[in-house]
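Students often ask why we bother encoding 3D structure as a string. The short answer is that it lets us treat folding as translation between two languages. Here is a chain of 183 residues written in the first language.
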Amino acid sequence: MTLDYIVSLVFIEAPSVPEFTARQQIMLAAREFCEETYAWQQVEEAETEEGGADVELFAPGGSEVVAVVSVAGLERGKDYTQPTPSMLRLAVPATSSYAMQVMLALKPRIQSSTLPDDLKPYIETLAKGAVYRLTSMAGVEWSNPQAAQSNYIQWQAAIAEARQRSQTGRAFGARTVKPRRFI
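And here it is in the second language, the structure alphabet:
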């Protein structure tokens, strides 16, 4: 997905912004959005080495690893930890070499000129994030504190909703049970 449509949305609220600056702020907003929400998730294979506990994680082209969401057949904290975004550390070294299925949360590289299709549902959110970032800049002709505040509030609300959606899918509502009096 190219940034052209998002740039056009940004120009509605900040028409005097140079296109390069708008594209840069859209990409920064997309990176922050992905870091906060884990909205872009993808299953990748990671190779273990016999006797090794560290497993290097490789992101697909045009992306960077934010975090490991899950590993097939393993429990976070008990069976593995993640000391850095690009490394998984097994609690018990592998007895043989094998490929494991790892669900990764990803973010686009800062140099990317496109965004993944996983972020299509969040196009307007990314535009709000870019507009918030642009209009909050001081000393530029497109600065607008009121627009910055309005877009920031909408940006934060959309991040919270996307975070919940990435954790629970479309099952909204409380994730706990209200305590009831036992009779």
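Translate back mentally: The beta strands are 41-47, 54-56, 63-71, 80-84, 87-90, 99-108. Keep this in mind for the problem set.
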